[in-house]
Amino acid sequence: MRSVFYISDQTGITTEKLGTALLIKFPHVELRKDSFPFSNTPSKIRQILLKVRNRYMIDGYKPLIISSMVDPELRKLLKVDYATHLDFFESFIAPLELALDTKAVMSSGKIHSIGDQDKYNHRIEAIHYSLENDDGVSAKHYEEADLIVVGVSRVGKTPTSIFLAVNYGIKVANYPLAEDDLEHPSLPKILVPFHHKLFGLSIEVEKLHTIRSNRLPGSRYAKIETCKHEIAAAERIMHNSGVPFLNTSHKSIEEISVAMMQIVKLTRQF
Amino acid sequence: MRSVFYISDQTGITTEKLGTALLIKFPHVELRKDSFPFSNTPSKIRQILLKVRNRYMIDGYKPLIISSMVDPELRKLLKVDYATHLDFFESFIAPLELALDTKAVMSSGKIHSIGDQDKYNHRIEAIHYSLENDDGVSAKHYEEADLIVVGVSRVGKTPTSIFLAVNYGIKVANYPLAEDDLEHPSLPKILVPFHHKLFGLSIEVEKLHTIRSNRLPGSRYAKIETCKHEIAAAERIMHNSGVPFLNTSHKSIEEISVAMMQIVKLTRQF
After folding, report:
1. What ipTM is given for this predicted complex?
2. Its pTM surpasses 0.95
3. Which domain holds residue B179?
């Protein structure tokens, strides 16, 4: 059992992601993780170091400190002989200074702060927009959408739309293809004027069956035949009308979102 | 003008965050960024390198390649003399192998893939839960909540709840304190049984006034007196009933979310 301390003088979100992406490559090491965001004073750091030292005594191994300390003075405090310390600013700022031929201004900008207020407001608006246009009830606000996600019920439209809004500030509406829609081989009329903003999601029959069965066990909605029929009809519509689509069966929200953005060439809006 | 190429054989989400967190410290360098997720074959890499080389000719400066290539063979291809290359696996895997006294298994796990299906399902459930319990209409599902966010209208409850659900798999309900609630100095009855799960958000009067004015200009709802009265009443309720709360005025969704999780000791659920 090894102990990992994530320490940041800001939110530490990026540090933890980085640490997770790295430590996942050591599947045979059992890890105990603790996070210390907003550790922005020497006294906070010293309190954490007491815990690090304590853990060293208990574990018999040096704990790992994975940090992103903007303040170099605070960063120095983490160089202790009872822990292994990796700091991502420390590792990358020097090579970047060399490459960009200029000194870093460590006091400037923070990745997860409000930053530019207009861009931040746009992001909050995108979240509200996506929540309010999640059901296909009305096309009233489709003009405003950056993207309209279409697909059958429980194909993954909502989580994907919300993820894109929250993390990329993209205004995503989503339109569930309902039974009525699926009877026709062409796009529902309501969507036609927004053809250029459409993106489809599809899924394997078995997978949809499992998801729907968890939700409404034994229902017609969850039946394998229903799933099969709906998926085929939805794919036919997308195919006939030239709407790009991808299969979500083995993809996480992140993978679906990044793939969609790549295909339709959308970028982060904040 | 310098060019930055984010290249990853997976989603590249962490790579871009890391790059953004670093490059924000060089405010005087104008940057042009391009992202190439899912670059997982030599031929894809070679296509990107053509662009990198081209940009080098145009810019007159070596572009920056910031990458996270799991596959060391693909990573090697990025070592070209017309670009500066930083790879975060390359930088950190060796020191981690030393610290953990074991070899990394580069083929194991991916941070943004589905991974553990049960945990992934839990996360999707959390997103649906938070969307469906966003209005305080019914306490029917409050048993199931990990957290219930309370506060006046437009204090930031919804974006925060959604962020926590999407990025941490936390089931967050949110309860807007309405006029009726604000007339009493104590918690709305509906919330009393869930006291231990409550977290409050507050905000500065001016800030709330601005946000509400953008939404409904000139309304009583947006008036400075209304905002002042509502905030005071809400804070009194939270204070009287011992509900922890924080002020969102100068905090981003990320900062609010991480601070809340720290205060109530919640951790990522997937």
Report:
1. 0.89
2. no
3. 117-264
